[in-house]
Structure formats: C-alpha cells, structure tokens
From TrEMBL:
UniProt keyword Transport, yes or no: yes
Subcellular location: Endomembrane system
Record key words, sorted: Membrane, Protein transport, Transport
Gene Ontology BP term (one): intracellular protein transport
Descriptive protein name: Membrane traffic protein
One Pfam assignment: Adaptin_N
Entries under InterPro entries matching the protein: Adaptor_Complx_Large_Subunit, ARM-like, ARM-type_fold, Clathrin/coatomer_adapt-like_N
Coarse class of the protein's main subcellular location: membrane
GO cellular component: endomembrane system; membrane coat
Residue ranges of domain Clathrin/coatomer adaptor adaptin-like N-terminal in the record: 14-207
Amino acid sequence: MIRAIRACKTASEERAVIRKECAAIRASISKNDQDYMHRNLAKLMFIHMLGYPTHFGQMECLKLIASPGFPEKRIGYLALMLLLDERQEVLMLVTNSIKQDLNHTNQYIVGLALCALGNICSAEMARDLSPEVEWLLQFRDPNIRKKAALCSIRIVKKVPDLAENFMKPTLALLKEKHHCVLITGVQLCEDLCKVSTEALEYYIKVYKPSLPDFMHFYKVQHQ
C-alpha cells in the first residue's frame, strides 16, 4: 500500500488508492478477520497521517487492546493514541481494558497502558484509574515509575481534586537514584503545587527544615 501511494503522481491518483485500500479494510473488518486486524490498523494509521478519515477503524483499536498478546496490544494502543483523542465518546469503552492492563503481570503491557493513558486521559478516566496509577508510582521497575509519574501529571491537571492522593507518593520519587524517575517526580511535584495550595503547604512543611543544609551544600559545590 505504501509503495502504491508513493508511486502516485497526482492527488487524484492518491485518493483513488486510498479509497481502494479503505474499501478492502472495511471488507476485512466486516468479516471479522482476526489474522489481518493488526495489519489493517497499521494501514489505517498511515492513512490517518496522510489526512484521510479513519473513524470506521476506532472499534478495531478496542478489540486489539482487549487481545491477550503483547504484539496486538501494542498496535491497538498505538492506534488508540493516534486515531482518537480525549473528546471521543468511544474512549469510555476502553477504560476497563486499560484498568486490567495496569494490573497486568507483564510490565511491558503495563507500560503500554500507561503510555496510552498519559496521552488520551480524560477527566472521567482520571477518576476511574487514578488508584492504579498511584499504586504504580511504587512499582519495582523505574521505567514504570517514570511513566506512572507522567500519567499522574496529566491526571492532576485534568482533575485537580485528585492532587491530595499523589502528595505523599511523590516524596519517594524525589529521593530516587534513577534520573528519569527523579526528573518526572520533580515535575509532578511542581504541577501539584500549581493546582493545589494544600500540596504547596505540605511540601514547604516537609522540606523547609532541610533547606539550610541544601543551600550550604550548593554554595560549597559552586565555590
């Protein structure tokens, strides 16, 4: 398909190729062809990036995300982030699948769910999934903790009322040895202070006693 599109010399030729491919994808979807579902979604993502409508493939994203295998979930989540946004009502149907994947034993599947949630999380999804994200801030793998912190940033921006839930877990992130987790922890702390005066007062109370020692260390290091 990509070769055929790139070989087109005019816009009308490209549109004809796209129409043909979309018709074939629709036919495959109507037959519920499981073997080609991930390939169809990959094609739809390319068609979407060219600026053509791909709304008819939204439900296929949800089906792939609900699949048990990692390769299918990877394509499904990638298509979800590309083809949909937080304003789509169909997102409410994927909340349960994301919740299951956030509790999955495979950390790579957990990572996929966190990436998707960090990109398309709506206020409703934030309220439903914040307990899972809060728990993942203490996950054993630093990459998952980093992604959970990034999700937390989006959650507190969407629903500032949830800021209180993330105040204490953030303290552990600020003591991290892994730089990627530490940086996201600092950003989360900053955003919590922006949306909640209670969070700002809490962090001032916690860190104010150690501020003189920090300033002394800073001056010594920069003399």
